[in-house]
Amino acid sequence: xxxxxxxxxxxxxxxxxxxxxxxxxxxxxxxxxxxxxxxxxxxxxxxxxxxxxxxxxxxxxxxxxxxxxxxxxxxxxxxxxxxxxxxxxxxxxxxxxxxxxxxxxxxxxxxxxxxxxxxxxxxxxxxxxxxxxxxxxxxxxxxxxxxxxxxxxxxxxxxxxxxxxxxxxxxxxxxxxxxxxxxxxxxxxxxxxxxxxxxxxxxxxxxxxxxxxxxxxxxxxxxxxxxxxxxxxxxxxxxxxxxxxxxxxxxxxxxxxxxxxxxxxxxxxxxxxxxxxxxxxxxxxxxxxxxxxxxxxxxxxxxxxxxxxxxxxxxxxxxxxxxxxxxxxxxxxxxxxxxxxxxxxxxxxxxxxxxx
Length: 356
Prior knowledge:
The protein folds into two domains: about 1-255, no CATH class; about 280-355, no CATH class. Strand 7 (about 235) and strand 8 (about 245) form a beta hairpin. The termini are far apart. It has 16 helices and 13 strands. With about 350 residues, the chain is α+β, with helices and mostly antiparallel strands.
């Protein structure tokens, strides 16, 4: 079996993810990548900015208000930005699964279906509600029942409501009738096939173990469909002998020079079980932290050079870099240019860059 080097795989993934050749729009990015993880909306915005040329905050705000992208819970029971057309895939795959939300309601002896019906009645009456109105509906248990999304997770999986993306936190929820077009409906088999194809086009070369990690599905959910879904994909192995799949039309192994400052929970860092394609064994904990946190990542010419954070004070932003090795003066100048561009996107003045 043909073998690919980690370097070839790394740059193919950068290319397929829209980091070498930008997507034409935020909608294309969200569709091709099947969601942009969005626990922290400001970093979801940054991860779109890194993949769509000429993106600014005003365009993003208009897109969100017009429901060009919507916020839903999907794979791994985490919140993402999606195109509304993909909502039906999420429903087919995750709506009926027994999840921690259903377990929580059962343990409290609360009727989830009744509360969801009351929530829908409220939404049908008003079309759009804020978080406080939903909390009032849930009563004294509202804080517990809405922690980490809570009942809202099942409401999106049922196709009842979607969240309007907003920085720093989601405030508004809308009934699905406010969408311009009704999301396409899928049966479970068709949804699995579509998700398999979408994943290996966007994230390949990747393994079935990687897909399972990203999707949160069990092997029994998708293994019967591998031959049909991936019939026109190429099969090779990585340096460790794992079987990986990629679509030839999306494969691009050449190195592109440049500075990348990828935000927390960037799509590239949430979708692979094996982290060694980008980080040495002793570097993995720099990115993947406790409690499921995934740091913002600094890449120089396609190689990991550390992590970064920022701090905002009024109209100014300061970046803090945590390099995993010494950074040369020419590279520091390139990083400063990138920080200046990122600050401009954020609508802030660059206050400075601190090396930790």
